[in-house]
Specification:
CATH topology of chain B: SMI1/KNR4-like
Order of helices and strands of chain B: HEHHEEEEHEEEEH
Structural class of chain B: alpha+beta
Radius of gyration of chain B: 14 Å
Mean pLDDT of chain B: 93
Number of helices of chain B: 5
Helix content of chain B: 25-40%
Number of domains of chain A: 1
Order of helices and strands of chain A: HEHHHEEHEH
Radius of gyration of chain A: 17 Å
CATH architecture of chain B: 3-Layer(aba) Sandwich
Shape of chain B: globular
Number of strands of chain B: 9
Structural class of chain A: alpha+beta
Number of strands of chain A: 4
Shape of chain A: globular
Low-confidence stretches of chain B: none
Strand order of the largest sheet of chain B: 1-2-3-6-7-8-9
Distance between the termini of chain B: 21 Å
CATH superfamily of chain B: SMI1/KNR4-like
Number of helices of chain A: 6
Low-confidence stretches of chain A: 143-147
Largest sheet of chain B: 7 strands, antiparallel
Helix content of chain A: 40-55%
Strand content of chain A: 5-15%
Oligomer: heterodimer
Chain lengths: 168, 147
């Protein structure tokens, strides 16, 4: 199905992501480097470590302390979180931190896959590209209980991690 | 890959095995898949759902189960059932005759009516790799969840 920007945004609203910006690419396949998977594994860790600049957004995810630490240290992605490319490699996206973002797997990442697959035969493909590194729909990003790892506490932990990295 | 090798691998990977499915859940799912003209679940997988695990989680990879699963990690969220996922994707031409049973952050996984399994692109659902062995396909699906 060929969307234009208006219909693409309308479809995302149907999928409960009404505040998700889109970018367009040409729907032609690009060759992917044979060693992309090795680079991708390393890039995932680098991206997770880079999230120490997104603590306020991460606080809305209600992560347990150990999950937060594992994420920010680049060790493990907590349950129900996914890392995605803004522009998939098959559409010419780069293996770079700036080309990635994090979101909840269910329902958001699954619905983003669905949104892209719906455009499989289109000349122009509209792709989800959140403004920040972490996508949290606006309707879930306010008035939350704060979980057991609030923004202040997470910022303290992130500062400790940053100090530790400075000593490495 | 045998079932025993797969189970040993899931154990060493610390995968989360979900509650087994009942015979009636299996029968209902098979009927619904048939009505949707999707492939019915092969015996090796129905046995697995009934006797070993009703779904598997490993990092951001899942083998879908027969019922929706409520999880309480990182807030409450729901993993859709194999039927819900296949209803969502039933209109796509690449899915004709196939049934999705798993996903990770890069690929979707499906089987067909002949018991063959496929790794599918997560942007077009085009087949990228074919398997004769469902346990090998499941392990490839889950392995990407913990890289």
């Amino acid at each position: 199905m060929q969307y234009n920007q208006t219909t693409a945004l309308r479809r995302l609203t149907d999928l409960f992501m009404d505040d998700l910006p889109v970018i367009s690419v040409m729907g032609k396949p690009y060759p992917v480097a044979p060693n992309w998977f090795e680079k991708y594994k390393s890039l995932r860790r680098d991206f997770m470590r880079s999230l120490s600049d997104s603590i306020e957004d991460i606080s809305f995810l209600n992560l347990a302390r150990e999950d937060f630490m594992a994420l920010i240290m680049g060790h493990a992605l907590p349950e129900n979180l996914s890392l995605r490319f803004r522009i998939p490699l098959q559409f010419g996206g780069k293996l770079e931190i700036d080309n990635m973002f994090m979101c909840k797997t269910f329902p958001h990442s699954q619905n983003m896959d669905r949104f892209i697959i719906e455009q499989a035969d289109s000349q122009t493909i509209w792709l989800p590209s959140p403004a920040k590194k972490v996508y949290i729909p606006a309707h879930t990003a306010s008035g939350g209980p704060g979980g057991n790892a609030t923004s202040d506490r997470l910022e303290q932990m992130a500062a400790q991690i940053a100090a530790t990295r400075g000593l490495e | 890959m045998t079932k025993e090798e797969f189970l040993s691998w899931t154990k060493s990977s610390s995968a989360t095995m979900l509650q087994t499915a009942s015979s009636s859940e299996i029968a209902q799912t098979q009927n619904a898949l048939q009505q949707m003209h999707s492939a019915i679940i092969p015996i090796s997988l129905t046995d697995f759902y009934k006797n070993i695990a009703g779904g598997i989680l490993l990092g951001d990879a899942q083998i879908f189960g027969l019922a929706e699963i409520k999880r309480e990690k990182t807030g409450t969220y729901y993993i859709p059932s194999i039927l819900q996922v296949n209803r969502d994707f039933s209109g796509f031409s690449n899915m004709r005759g196939k049934t999705i049973f798993g996903r990770n952050g890069l690929f979707w996984f499906a089987f067909d009516a002949f018991g063959k399994c496929f790794m599918l692109s997560n942007i077009t659902l085009a087949p990228m790799r074919q398997y004769d062995d469902i346990f090998k396909a499941m392990s490839d699906c889950l392995a990407v969840g913990k890289i």
